Amino acid sequence: MKIGVIGGGQLGRMMALAGTPLGMSFAFLDPAPDACAQALGEHIRADYSDQAHLRQLADEVDLVTFEFESVPAETVAFLSQFVPVYPSAEALRIARDRWFEKSMFKDLGIPTPAFADIQSQADLDAAVAAIGLPAVMKTRTLGYDGKGQKVLRAPADVVGAFAELGSVPCILEGFVPFTGEVSLVAVRARDGETRFYPLVHNRHDSGVLALSIASTDHPLQALAEDYVGRVLKQLDYVGVLAFEFFEVDGGLKANEIAPRVHNSGHWTIEGAECSQFENHLRAVAGLPLGSTAKVGESAMLNFLGEVPAVEKVVAIADCHLHHYGKAFKAGRKVGHATLRCQDMTTLKARIAEVEALIKA
Predict the structure, then answer these.
(1) I want to staple 67 with a disulfide (CB 3.0 to 4.6 A). Which of 7, 19, 98, 169 is the partner?
(2) What one-character-per-residue DSSP string does 150-196 give?
């Protein structure tokens, strides 16, 4: 089976690494000349709206998926005329737009921060008056890793903020005084079978995920599964989806969903019976889903800007290095380490060792 992937970054690369043992081959459509997934398959270098090359991709593969939500929903809709595409264009349309996303959560009874649609500075002024400060203003689309957003703490921060974010459609969200950030990675098959990985505790630095630790018997696991299950059913979703939550007052408030394999699920490569990448491919290809059970205690740490010396990373016991083959650049995700240990005490000690390398 040949899988077409829209996007050729590290998520597509890790997808191909998981799919190759299943007898799958891959073609990646990405405009970047140095797309890091190209080492794992054919690279069709073209813009995501280039219909001639999209048609070429469709003609070459058995089905198409995508590795990030910046892909236009129109691209997926176009491809769907010629080849099966999972997740669907409608799922992508909603997940890539924060207003549609938050509105869906509200309709499904999933708690969210207060939010408002912002189409102008006047809209922003009115929303701040209604929601109050502090608040977070975000572009409705194309924001990730802390990009495309601004925290508004004082009235002076509101002045000119709409223009500062590019005078594009935005959403204002009330600030959430959370006690923790967690995410749930789930996978849903074509026939509706659904499986959930353990809730993951996340720590972000400057808006970018730095550390994820898979939980054991988290008290909010069932609630998170309920909320995620509602979304998966509503979207008739196929593939892996990640849902990020805030822990608030012993419950959960929705932050956002990602309609794809997710950074907070990288620990599953070594830390689960079947990784998020393999399960995504199983789901879209119509294969039986794999077990999402943990294997020991696991964590993931991102490498931003550069990967520490390989010999130093792999010298740490229980540590597995994933180098993306990307050029080093400040702030860029260029690799990660996953840790798998037998107990949480050892895991925390290993995390400290990796963090020392990152800070060195």
Answers:
(1) 7
(2) EEE-SHHHHTTHHHHTTS--EEEEE----SEEEEEEEEE-TTS-EEE
Whole-structure pTM value:
0.95
Binding residues: 98, 138, 143-149, 173-176, 181, 204, 255-256
Asked if residues 112 and 106 have their Cβ atoms less than 8 Å apart, the reply is yes
Q: Where in the chain is the domain with CATH 3.30.1490.20?
A: 114-174
Rounded Cα distance, 41 and 77, in Å: 24
* Fold (topology level) of 114-174: Dna Ligase; domain 1 (3.30.1490)
Peptide bond into 288 cis (omega under 30): no
Residues of the chain below pLDDT 50? none
Percent of the chain topping pLDDT 90: 95
The two tokens of residue 159 are 């002045």
Both tokens assigned to 342: 């037998």
Give CA angle at 259 (171, 250), nearest 5°. 70
Residues 234, 66, 58, 231: what is their CA dihedral angle, to the nearest 10 degrees? 0
Between CA 226 and CA 233 the distance in angstroms is 11
Model confidence pLDDT, tens digit, residues 64-78: 999 998 899 999 999
List the alpha helices (DSSP H) in 198-343: 221-234, 268-271, 276-285, 310-314
Whole-number pLDDT of residue 145: 59
pLDDT of residue 144: 64
Q: What is the pLDDT of residue 299?
A: 98
Q: Tens of pLDDT along 117-159?
A: 999 999 999 999 999 999 999 999 986 656 788 999 999 999 9
Topology (CATH) of 2-85: Rossmann fold (3.40.50)
Say which CATH superfamily domain 180-359 falls into.
Answer: ATP-grasp fold, B domain (3.30.470.20)
Q: Where in the chain is the domain with CATH 3.30.470.20?
A: 180-359
CATH 3.40.50.20 domain position(s) in the chain = 2-85
